[in-house]
Amino acid sequence: MGKRGGRGPHRGLEHVTRKKAIASSLSDVVASEDYGGTVSKPVKATMDADGDLTDNVSDPPALINVSGQPSRIDLYLTKRFPLSRSRIQTLINEEHIRVNGLTIKPSFKVKQGDQINLTVPPREPLNFDPEPVPLDILYEDDALLIINKPPGLVVHPAPGHRSGTLANGLLYHCRNITQQGGRERPGLVHRLDKDTSGIMVIAKTDAAHTALSRQFKEHSIERMYIALVAGVIKNKDGKVNLAIGRDISDRKKISSRTHSPREAETHFTVIRRFDIATLIHVFPQTGRTHQIRVHMAHLAHPVVGDPCYGGRTARISALGAPRQMLHAASLGFIHPLTHKKVSFSAPPPADMQDIIDLLGKGMLQRAPTAGQPQGVRPLRGLPLQQDRMAL
To answer: Which of 117, 196, 204, 252 shows a CA-CA span of 20 to 30 A to 279?
Structure first.
């Protein structure tokens, strides 16, 4: 890792990018004029593929003498250490980071003269092995896989879900799959919530991972979801433009009440209206965590069956939804090898289709839209391509 000349006994540290952080060793983390502050002793650590420190920063903890303008402590440390902001906030909440010997909140502002005690404990190792998890593979070539993820399948290992994930199944199916996104995220360039079903693209090679990740970052991927939402949406289409992030009071939720708002935009079109629900096609323009669920709840039309954001409105007992009725129906992108536009689609799974049929057969009457005849019919004929790949 390159260094710049500093003054006195300290040496400078050039900005550590996420790429440079991968599989690197961080030593002699001290201050430069650009960064401000000093570390009282050398810091020894290694970083995982996500750019987070994996070992204790120091023993005893590193002591950082703060200088410069007042700043939130999570932002201050993010600029000085190759740690994500969420990781730093977790360390603060777990009392591994203190200021002047006192526990603080992530929003605490440090100022010149403060001393930060920082310890990064080792993360709990995961037993991450290939497992014969059943995969619904719609398409496969040398560069990528297209998976139709069923509801209930966790995408990658996390606390409470150490095995039986999609990632375990991918390691079993493709032993040489890229791990460019991290050992625990083989081939993954995006994710779906556990109880959201539908299309996912999986990279098999480093080159495919890079190309697909770039398209997701640039928001050039074309995605369409099918959602059943509570209540009757009157307009034929709509748009939600609402920045969201981790909720300030509940870290497990996403909301607009956040210290870290990120731009999020969702478009939707009404397909069918019923007395108690509306079937829509949703086109997320950005890919934030829980974006569709949060945005539809913001409109007071939460996804039916959503236990997190729906509240009483989403619990329509007559429908008996076992999960949020949200399905990633289609995905379009530029193929990393052919450089041609490809698209893939899959119909909703049985649990969601059964509820759509319940509504469509008139057991729960819908409110007819203007220009449409009275009565209802089963919704098997959704305007969704049934061919699984279109070149």
So the answer is: 252
